[in-house]
Amino acid sequence: MNSDNNRSPLVSALALTAALFFACAFAYPAVAETLQERVKEYRLDNGLRILALHRDGSPTFSVFTRFLAGAVDENVGETGVAHILEHMLFKGSQRIGTTDFKKEKPLMAKVEKLGEELDAERRKGDSADKKKVARLKEKMAEILKEQRKYIVSDEISSIYSSNGGAAFNAFTNMDITSYIVKLPSNRLELWAWVESDRLRSPVLREYYSERDVVMEERRRSVDNSANGTLYEQFKAAAFQAHPYGNPIIGWESDISLLPKKKVKQFLKTYYSPNNMVVCIVGDIEPDKVFSVIKKYFGDIPAQNIPPRIATKEPAQKGERRIKVEFDAQPDVLIGFHKPVFPNRDDYVFDVIGSILTSGRTSRLYKSLVLEKGIAVSVDSWAAPGSRYDNLFTLEAVPRKPHTTAELETAVYAELDRLKTEPVSARELQKVINNVDADYIRGLKSNSGLAYYLSVYEIITNDWRNMMRYQDEIKKVTPEDIMRAAKKYLVKWNRTVATLVKPAGDGNSP
Hints:
Low-confidence stretches: 7-30
Radius of gyration: 24 Å
Largest sheet: 7 strands, mixed
Structural class: alpha+beta
CATH class of the largest domain: Alpha Beta
Distance between the termini: 39 Å
Number of helices: 19
Strand order of the largest sheet: 1-5-6-4-7-3-2
Strand content: 15-25%
CATH topology of the largest domain: Cytochrome Bc1 Complex, Chain A, domain 1
Number of domains: 2
């Protein structure tokens, strides 16, 4: 279970960055034709979409279950709700995770009531009655201790592992929430029963203690992490209106007092069959997959999905610069606003990213790391999501005694080259070759193929966009690159975040 900060291309799920989200979609015509013929599509009456592909080899299958619900769908003051819900779905249902739900239920209700009272008092801040807070905490602990007599921890994981399961996990990003597992082929019906059960009658048990776990996760991955802190502040500076500026894990003040009822509301709103894609790849028969899923998921009612956010990030009117103090190695992030699929310039930026930072012969790596020796590393990606306009981001870490200012100067010089010098046919061909290699690697495993089929289906509404990408990449011309660079890679459209040493140690600028 984890939140994906989308800093690098599709780190886990949901990490859904355009750099690899599209870059791994190139296919030889023969491969594309085979997939077109072999991927079977189904849709239940309640709207649930199913993709199934039979593959010989290991007697197993991999499954990705995706919901079009992520941090971008959260309301103001409720950041982190998508991620906390992902955690809570591992707690089981009325049948899984408990020895006696009838006896557990009233105790859980008491814990929830006390939790609401405790949060209400804590919301008063400095005016909160400390004695009341302590008393409520003590009472909650007593009742929770009684409730835990009936709780079977991690029972879903135990069920899967005892039946040969592996890679059981979940992840949340800005755009989607995903649940994955790999199982023996003869455990398809087991999977369908478990997953439909925790979708039909989920029980968000141990909510308040799990909320504390998420708070600790935030401290570890953001507050005590130089990269986590820098990236969080960078996003917040780049997006002033759009929720892409919020952290996936949530702001600390939101997480610490997030009401359980808000998590339940998010669950009811977005965890609906008509907002869901299931993709199964492996030693399975597609028609059987359909019949089994229909049997277990078919009676789950569809929900009315609310209108998606209409807020658009206003055009930036000038460069934004921030400095983040942290006792760590200096670092710099440079981001430029850009459109996403299906806008053609999204493909152009995939090419630009490959030219600049893909491999040891890429322009920035060769110049900054190998030749000038002023950088330890350089990278680029598109983030923080793919459903709405995002950022083309460059990151560079200086090599002592060089500075982030030197790296910025060198990066801007390379970006200016893109505006004035046509990219050679050789460089464009290298991009195609790299994309080809990435794609083939991604399809070697059942889980890799299930990953890409499901992510394209949930984000673009058609998994076939995997294959269509080849033609789009081939259409990108040197003139397209020059035009896009002149339009987007400009000072007024960029946000720069620099990691600096804390003031007072003699190293701050």
